[in-house]
Amino acid sequence: MQVYHLYSGGKDSSLSAWILERMGYSVELVTVNFGILDSWKYAKETAEKLGFRHRVLYLSQDIIEKAAEIAIKDGHPNNAIQFIHERALEALASLPEVERVSDGTRRDDRVPLLDLPKSRSLEDRFNVAYIRPLLGLGYKTIRELTERLFVVEIRESEQLEKADYEVELRHLLREEGIDLLTIFPKSHYQSRVVGWRGEGRYD
Amino acid sequence: MQVYHLYSGGKDSSLSAWILERMGYSVELVTVNFGILDSWKYAKETAEKLGFRHRVLYLSQDIIEKAAEIAIKDGHPNNAIQFIHERALEALASLPEVERVSDGTRRDDRVPLLDLPKSRSLEDRFNVAYIRPLLGLGYKTIRELTERLFVVEIRESEQLEKADYEVELRHLLREEGIDLLTIFPKSHYQSRVVGWRGEGRYD
What is the C-alpha separation between B164 and B130, in angstroms, rounded? Predict the structure, then answer.
Protein backbone atom coordinates (compact mmCIF):
# COMPACT_ATOMS: atom_id res chain seq x y z
CA MET A 1 0.00 0.00 0.00
CA GLN A 2 2.00 2.91 -1.36
CA VAL A 3 0.97 6.42 -0.29
CA TYR A 4 2.40 9.71 -1.59
CA HIS A 5 2.46 12.26 1.21
CA LEU A 6 2.79 16.03 0.72
CA TYR A 7 5.71 17.00 2.90
CA SER A 8 7.22 20.28 4.10
CA GLY A 9 9.57 19.03 6.83
CA GLY A 10 7.30 20.57 9.47
CA LYS A 11 5.75 18.93 12.53
CA ASP A 12 2.36 18.19 11.07
CA SER A 13 3.54 16.61 7.85
CA SER A 14 6.20 14.62 9.75
CA LEU A 15 3.73 13.37 12.37
CA SER A 16 1.24 12.29 9.72
CA ALA A 17 3.98 10.50 7.75
CA TRP A 18 4.82 8.56 10.91
CA ILE A 19 1.17 7.63 11.52
CA LEU A 20 0.81 6.45 7.91
CA GLU A 21 3.83 4.24 8.35
CA ARG A 22 2.46 2.83 11.60
CA MET A 23 -0.80 2.06 9.74
CA GLY A 24 1.15 -0.18 7.41
CA TYR A 25 1.61 2.16 4.43
CA SER A 26 4.77 2.40 2.40
CA VAL A 27 5.28 6.17 2.55
CA GLU A 28 6.97 8.35 -0.05
CA LEU A 29 7.32 11.99 0.92
CA VAL A 30 6.71 14.56 -1.81
CA THR A 31 7.75 18.20 -1.56
CA VAL A 32 6.23 20.67 -3.97
CA ASN A 33 8.50 23.28 -5.54
CA PHE A 34 8.02 26.01 -8.15
CA GLY A 35 11.65 26.34 -9.24
CA ILE A 36 11.97 29.76 -7.56
CA LEU A 37 14.09 28.65 -4.60
CA ASP A 38 15.66 25.30 -3.80
CA SER A 39 13.85 25.28 -0.47
CA TRP A 40 12.77 21.66 -1.12
CA LYS A 41 16.24 20.64 0.06
CA TYR A 42 15.32 21.35 3.71
CA ALA A 43 12.42 18.92 3.46
CA LYS A 44 14.66 16.36 1.78
CA GLU A 45 17.20 16.78 4.59
CA THR A 46 14.54 16.12 7.25
CA ALA A 47 13.08 13.23 5.26
CA GLU A 48 16.51 11.62 5.18
CA LYS A 49 17.04 12.16 8.90
CA LEU A 50 13.71 10.47 9.57
CA GLY A 51 14.44 7.65 7.14
CA PHE A 52 11.69 8.26 4.60
CA ARG A 53 11.94 8.18 0.82
CA HIS A 54 11.55 11.64 -0.71
CA ARG A 55 10.90 13.24 -4.08
CA VAL A 56 10.37 16.76 -5.38
CA LEU A 57 7.29 17.55 -7.46
CA TYR A 58 7.82 20.64 -9.61
CA LEU A 59 4.68 22.65 -10.34
CA SER A 60 4.18 25.38 -12.91
CA GLN A 61 5.21 28.90 -11.87
CA ASP A 62 1.78 30.00 -13.14
CA ILE A 63 0.33 28.53 -9.96
CA ILE A 64 2.49 30.47 -7.52
CA GLU A 65 2.10 33.65 -9.59
CA LYS A 66 -1.66 33.28 -9.39
CA ALA A 67 -1.31 32.63 -5.62
CA ALA A 68 0.75 35.83 -5.28
CA GLU A 69 -2.02 37.78 -7.03
CA ILE A 70 -4.59 36.32 -4.64
CA ALA A 71 -2.45 37.20 -1.59
CA ILE A 72 -1.96 40.80 -2.80
CA LYS A 73 -5.67 41.25 -3.53
CA ASP A 74 -6.69 39.74 -0.14
CA GLY A 75 -3.99 41.37 2.00
CA HIS A 76 -3.50 38.01 3.74
CA PRO A 77 -2.04 34.69 2.59
CA ASN A 78 -4.86 32.26 3.48
CA ASN A 79 -6.59 31.87 0.14
CA ALA A 80 -3.26 31.83 -1.67
CA ILE A 81 -1.99 28.95 0.49
CA GLN A 82 -5.29 27.11 0.00
CA PHE A 83 -5.03 27.62 -3.77
CA ILE A 84 -1.48 26.21 -3.89
CA HIS A 85 -2.39 23.22 -1.72
CA GLU A 86 -5.35 22.24 -3.91
CA ARG A 87 -3.20 22.45 -7.04
CA ALA A 88 -0.44 20.43 -5.33
CA LEU A 89 -2.89 17.65 -4.37
CA GLU A 90 -4.28 17.60 -7.91
CA ALA A 91 -0.82 17.43 -9.48
CA LEU A 92 0.21 14.60 -7.18
CA ALA A 93 -3.07 12.71 -7.63
CA SER A 94 -2.79 12.95 -11.41
CA LEU A 95 0.54 11.07 -11.59
CA PRO A 96 -0.11 7.66 -13.17
CA GLU A 97 1.55 5.64 -10.39
CA VAL A 98 -0.37 7.40 -7.59
CA GLU A 99 -3.35 5.60 -6.01
CA ARG A 100 -3.22 7.23 -2.57
CA VAL A 101 -2.36 10.80 -1.61
CA SER A 102 -2.09 12.26 1.87
CA ASP A 103 -1.17 15.39 3.76
CA GLY A 104 -0.72 16.74 7.27
CA THR A 105 -3.78 18.98 7.41
CA ARG A 106 -5.51 18.96 10.77
CA ARG A 107 -8.84 19.55 12.44
CA ASP A 108 -7.94 22.96 13.83
CA ASP A 109 -6.36 24.35 10.64
CA ARG A 110 -8.18 27.02 8.74
CA VAL A 111 -5.94 26.69 5.69
CA PRO A 112 -5.01 24.67 3.88
CA LEU A 113 -8.02 22.41 4.39
CA LEU A 114 -10.31 20.63 1.93
CA ASP A 115 -13.95 20.41 2.97
CA LEU A 116 -15.94 17.22 2.46
CA PRO A 117 -17.17 17.99 -1.10
CA LYS A 118 -13.67 19.02 -2.21
CA SER A 119 -12.13 15.90 -0.63
CA ARG A 120 -14.59 13.63 -2.39
CA SER A 121 -14.13 15.53 -5.65
CA LEU A 122 -10.35 15.02 -5.47
CA GLU A 123 -10.85 11.29 -4.91
CA ASP A 124 -13.41 10.97 -7.70
CA ARG A 125 -11.67 13.09 -10.35
CA PHE A 126 -8.33 11.34 -9.98
CA ASN A 127 -9.48 7.93 -8.75
CA VAL A 128 -7.30 8.09 -5.64
CA ALA A 129 -7.82 7.71 -1.91
CA TYR A 130 -7.15 10.92 0.05
CA ILE A 131 -5.86 10.22 3.56
CA ARG A 132 -5.46 12.80 6.34
CA PRO A 133 -4.13 11.14 9.50
CA LEU A 134 -4.36 14.36 11.56
CA LEU A 135 -7.87 15.43 10.60
CA GLY A 136 -9.43 13.83 13.67
CA LEU A 137 -6.78 15.13 16.09
CA GLY A 138 -6.93 18.34 18.10
CA TYR A 139 -3.99 20.55 19.05
CA LYS A 140 -3.45 18.83 22.43
CA THR A 141 -3.08 15.44 20.80
CA ILE A 142 -0.80 16.73 18.07
CA ARG A 143 1.38 18.55 20.58
CA GLU A 144 1.65 15.47 22.80
CA LEU A 145 2.59 13.15 19.93
CA THR A 146 5.01 15.63 18.37
CA GLU A 147 6.83 16.22 21.66
CA ARG A 148 7.11 12.49 22.19
CA LEU A 149 8.46 11.77 18.71
CA PHE A 150 10.49 14.64 17.32
CA VAL A 151 13.24 17.10 18.00
CA VAL A 152 11.81 20.36 16.69
CA GLU A 153 13.41 23.70 15.91
CA ILE A 154 11.17 26.78 16.22
CA ARG A 155 12.03 30.17 14.73
CA GLU A 156 10.35 33.07 13.00
CA SER A 157 9.19 32.31 9.45
CA GLU A 158 11.82 34.55 7.88
CA GLN A 159 14.72 32.91 9.65
CA LEU A 160 13.87 29.25 9.38
CA GLU A 161 15.14 27.12 6.55
CA LYS A 162 11.88 25.58 5.51
CA ALA A 163 10.29 23.98 2.49
CA ASP A 164 6.61 24.93 2.75
CA TYR A 165 4.63 26.90 0.16
CA GLU A 166 5.12 30.13 2.09
CA VAL A 167 8.87 30.26 1.48
CA GLU A 168 8.63 30.61 -2.28
CA LEU A 169 5.47 32.73 -2.04
CA ARG A 170 7.25 35.24 0.22
CA HIS A 171 10.25 35.31 -2.10
CA LEU A 172 8.09 35.96 -5.16
CA LEU A 173 6.16 38.74 -3.41
CA ARG A 174 9.40 40.34 -2.21
CA GLU A 175 10.77 40.21 -5.77
CA GLU A 176 7.62 41.97 -6.93
CA GLY A 177 8.36 44.77 -4.46
CA ILE A 178 5.53 43.91 -2.08
CA ASP A 179 5.98 44.78 1.60
CA LEU A 180 5.48 41.36 3.26
CA LEU A 181 4.10 43.00 6.39
CA THR A 182 1.01 44.02 4.41
CA ILE A 183 0.24 40.32 3.84
CA PHE A 184 1.85 38.13 6.50
CA PRO A 185 1.55 38.55 10.27
CA LYS A 186 4.70 40.09 11.72
CA SER A 187 5.91 37.45 14.11
CA HIS A 188 4.85 34.09 12.85
CA TYR A 189 6.73 31.25 14.45
CA GLN A 190 7.28 28.21 12.32
CA SER A 191 8.68 24.84 13.19
CA ARG A 192 10.92 22.37 11.47
CA VAL A 193 11.58 18.79 12.51
CA VAL A 194 15.29 18.02 12.83
CA GLY A 195 15.20 14.38 13.97
CA TRP A 196 13.68 11.63 16.05
CA ARG A 197 13.66 12.03 19.81
CA GLY A 198 15.08 9.31 21.97
CA GLU A 199 15.12 5.88 20.46
CA GLY A 200 13.87 6.95 17.08
CA ARG A 201 11.00 6.10 14.83
CA TYR A 202 9.76 3.09 16.74
CA ASP A 203 10.19 4.76 20.13
CA MET B 1 -0.87 7.65 27.06
CA GLN B 2 -4.16 6.01 28.01
CA VAL B 3 -7.15 6.51 25.71
CA TYR B 4 -10.74 5.41 26.31
CA HIS B 5 -12.34 4.39 23.04
CA LEU B 6 -16.09 4.06 22.45
CA TYR B 7 -16.53 0.59 21.05
CA SER B 8 -19.36 -1.36 19.42
CA GLY B 9 -17.47 -4.35 18.04
CA GLY B 10 -18.04 -3.06 14.49
CA LYS B 11 -15.48 -2.45 11.76
CA ASP B 12 -15.03 1.26 12.28
CA SER B 13 -14.54 1.17 16.03
CA SER B 14 -12.22 -1.84 15.71
CA LEU B 15 -10.12 -0.23 12.99
CA SER B 16 -9.76 2.99 14.94
CA ALA B 17 -8.78 1.05 18.09
CA TRP B 18 -6.02 -0.62 16.07
CA ILE B 19 -4.78 2.71 14.70
CA LEU B 20 -4.72 4.20 18.22
CA GLU B 21 -2.61 1.28 19.40
CA ARG B 22 -0.24 1.68 16.46
CA MET B 23 0.09 5.37 17.39
CA GLY B 24 1.43 4.31 20.78
CA TYR B 25 -1.70 4.67 22.89
CA SER B 26 -2.69 2.26 25.61
CA VAL B 27 -6.27 1.56 24.49
CA GLU B 28 -9.21 0.65 26.70
CA LEU B 29 -12.41 -0.13 24.82
CA VAL B 30 -15.65 1.15 26.33
CA THR B 31 -19.10 -0.08 25.32
CA VAL B 32 -22.10 1.99 26.33
CA ASN B 33 -25.16 0.21 27.64
CA PHE B 34 -28.52 1.32 29.05
CA GLY B 35 -29.35 -1.82 31.02
CA ILE B 36 -32.12 -2.78 28.56
CA LEU B 37 -30.28 -5.64 26.84
CA ASP B 38 -26.93 -7.24 27.60
CA SER B 39 -25.82 -6.49 24.04
CA TRP B 40 -22.51 -5.13 25.40
CA LYS B 41 -21.38 -8.75 25.68
CA TYR B 42 -20.90 -9.00 21.89
CA ALA B 43 -18.50 -6.06 21.97
CA LYS B 44 -16.69 -7.58 24.93
CA GLU B 45 -16.38 -10.86 23.02
CA THR B 46 -14.82 -9.10 20.01
CA ALA B 47 -12.58 -6.99 22.26
CA GLU B 48 -11.26 -10.17 23.83
CA LYS B 49 -10.68 -11.82 20.46
CA LEU B 50 -8.69 -8.75 19.37
CA GLY B 51 -6.78 -8.60 22.65
CA PHE B 52 -7.98 -5.23 23.93
CA ARG B 53 -9.05 -4.33 27.46
CA HIS B 54 -12.78 -3.66 27.66
CA ARG B 55 -15.28 -2.10 30.04
CA VAL B 56 -19.01 -1.36 30.01
CA LEU B 57 -20.22 2.16 30.73
CA TYR B 58 -23.83 2.19 31.92
CA LEU B 59 -25.81 5.30 31.04
CA SER B 60 -29.15 6.44 32.39
CA GLN B 61 -32.24 5.01 30.69
CA ASP B 62 -33.52 8.60 30.49
CA ILE B 63 -31.08 9.08 27.60
CA ILE B 64 -32.31 6.21 25.47
CA GLU B 65 -35.94 7.07 26.28
CA LYS B 66 -35.33 10.61 25.07
CA ALA B 67 -33.62 9.17 21.97
CA ALA B 68 -36.66 6.97 21.31
CA GLU B 69 -38.91 10.04 21.48
CA ILE B 70 -36.66 11.83 18.98
CA ALA B 71 -36.71 8.84 16.60
CA ILE B 72 -40.51 8.58 16.78
CA LYS B 73 -40.97 12.30 16.17
CA ASP B 74 -38.48 12.33 13.25
CA GLY B 75 -39.52 9.05 11.63
CA HIS B 76 -35.83 8.21 11.24
CA PRO B 77 -33.08 7.30 13.69
CA ASN B 78 -30.34 9.82 12.77
CA ASN B 79 -30.89 12.50 15.40
CA ALA B 80 -31.57 9.85 18.05
CA ILE B 81 -28.24 8.13 17.34
CA GLN B 82 -26.46 11.50 17.34
CA PHE B 83 -28.08 12.37 20.68
CA ILE B 84 -26.96 9.09 22.29
CA HIS B 85 -23.42 9.44 20.93
CA GLU B 86 -23.00 12.95 22.33
CA ARG B 87 -24.23 11.83 25.75
CA ALA B 88 -21.93 8.78 25.62
CA LEU B 89 -18.87 10.95 24.86
CA GLU B 90 -19.80 13.34 27.67
CA ALA B 91 -20.30 10.52 30.17
CA LEU B 92 -16.96 8.98 29.25
CA ALA B 93 -15.12 12.30 29.24
CA SER B 94 -16.51 13.17 32.68
CA LEU B 95 -14.94 10.14 34.40
CA PRO B 96 -12.12 11.36 36.66
CA GLU B 97 -9.45 9.04 35.23
CA VAL B 98 -10.20 9.95 31.61
CA GLU B 99 -7.85 12.39 29.82
CA ARG B 100 -8.39 11.17 26.25
CA VAL B 101 -11.55 9.90 24.57
CA SER B 102 -11.91 8.53 21.07
CA ASP B 103 -14.38 6.95 18.70
CA GLY B 104 -14.63 5.40 15.24
CA THR B 105 -16.58 8.17 13.52
CA ARG B 106 -15.46 8.81 9.96
CA ARG B 107 -15.35 11.46 7.27
CA ASP B 108 -18.23 10.03 5.26
CA ASP B 109 -20.58 9.42 8.21
CA ARG B 110 -23.61 11.62 8.57
CA VAL B 111 -24.32 10.42 12.11
CA PRO B 112 -22.99 10.17 14.64
CA LEU B 113 -20.54 12.97 13.95
CA LEU B 114 -19.44 15.97 16.03
CA ASP B 115 -18.75 19.13 14.05
CA LEU B 116 -15.75 21.32 14.90
CA PRO B 117 -17.47 23.53 17.51
CA LYS B 118 -18.97 20.50 19.26
CA SER B 119 -15.61 18.68 19.23
CA ARG B 120 -13.84 21.65 20.77
CA SER B 121 -16.64 22.12 23.27
CA LEU B 122 -16.31 18.49 24.40
CA GLU B 123 -12.56 18.95 24.87
CA ASP B 124 -12.96 22.24 26.72
CA ARG B 125 -15.85 21.32 29.01
CA PHE B 126 -14.26 18.09 30.21
CA ASN B 127 -10.58 18.95 29.77
CA VAL B 128 -9.92 15.95 27.56
CA ALA B 129 -8.41 15.33 24.14
CA TYR B 130 -10.91 13.96 21.60
CA ILE B 131 -9.26 11.70 19.02
CA ARG B 132 -10.92 10.37 15.86
CA PRO B 133 -8.46 8.23 13.89
CA LEU B 134 -10.88 7.67 10.99
CA LEU B 135 -12.01 11.26 10.47
CA GLY B 136 -9.48 11.90 7.72
CA LEU B 137 -10.12 8.59 5.94
CA GLY B 138 -12.59 7.99 3.09
CA TYR B 139 -14.55 4.81 2.45
CA LYS B 140 -11.93 3.35 0.06
CA THR B 141 -9.20 3.63 2.68
CA ILE B 142 -11.38 2.23 5.45
CA ARG B 143 -12.47 -0.70 3.28
CA GLU B 144 -8.89 -1.46 2.28
CA LEU B 145 -7.58 -1.42 5.85
CA THR B 146 -10.53 -3.36 7.25
CA GLU B 147 -10.21 -6.10 4.64
CA ARG B 148 -6.51 -6.37 5.35
CA LEU B 149 -6.94 -6.57 9.13
CA PHE B 150 -10.18 -8.21 10.14
CA VAL B 151 -12.44 -11.15 9.58
CA VAL B 152 -15.87 -9.53 9.37
CA GLU B 153 -19.37 -10.97 9.54
CA ILE B 154 -22.09 -9.05 7.66
CA ARG B 155 -25.82 -9.57 8.24
CA GLU B 156 -29.03 -7.59 8.44
CA SER B 157 -29.31 -5.41 11.55
CA GLU B 158 -32.04 -7.52 13.08
CA GLN B 159 -30.11 -10.75 12.85
CA LEU B 160 -26.67 -9.68 13.96
CA GLU B 161 -25.54 -9.95 17.54
CA LYS B 162 -24.21 -6.45 17.96
CA ALA B 163 -23.52 -3.95 20.68
CA ASP B 164 -24.16 -0.58 19.07
CA TYR B 165 -26.69 2.01 20.23
CA GLU B 166 -29.23 0.83 17.66
CA VAL B 167 -29.73 -2.57 19.29
CA GLU B 168 -31.18 -1.22 22.53
CA LEU B 169 -32.97 1.62 20.73
CA ARG B 170 -34.76 -0.86 18.45
CA HIS B 171 -35.67 -3.02 21.43
CA LEU B 172 -37.10 -0.08 23.36
CA LEU B 173 -39.13 1.12 20.37
CA ARG B 174 -40.47 -2.40 19.77
CA GLU B 175 -41.46 -2.63 23.44
CA GLU B 176 -43.33 0.64 23.03
CA GLY B 177 -45.32 -0.94 20.19
CA ILE B 178 -43.65 1.08 17.42
CA ASP B 179 -43.37 -0.49 13.96
CA LEU B 180 -39.63 -0.36 13.35
CA LEU B 181 -40.18 -0.06 9.60
CA THR B 182 -41.57 3.44 10.16
CA ILE B 183 -38.19 4.51 11.56
CA PHE B 184 -35.37 2.26 10.28
CA PRO B 185 -34.63 1.40 6.64
CA LYS B 186 -35.81 -2.12 5.83
CA SER B 187 -32.65 -3.85 4.79
CA HIS B 188 -29.76 -2.34 6.64
CA TYR B 189 -26.67 -4.48 6.58
CA GLN B 190 -24.45 -4.26 9.60
CA SER B 191 -21.04 -5.69 10.25
CA ARG B 192 -19.31 -7.20 13.22
CA VAL B 193 -15.64 -7.98 13.56
CA VAL B 194 -14.99 -11.59 14.61
CA GLY B 195 -11.18 -11.69 14.65
CA TRP B 196 -7.85 -10.72 13.13
CA ARG B 197 -7.10 -11.85 9.62
CA GLY B 198 -3.92 -13.76 8.87
CA GLU B 199 -1.12 -13.22 11.29
CA GLY B 200 -3.06 -11.03 13.66
CA ARG B 201 -2.79 -7.59 15.09
CA TYR B 202 0.74 -6.87 13.89
CA ASP B 203 0.10 -8.34 10.45
Answer: 20
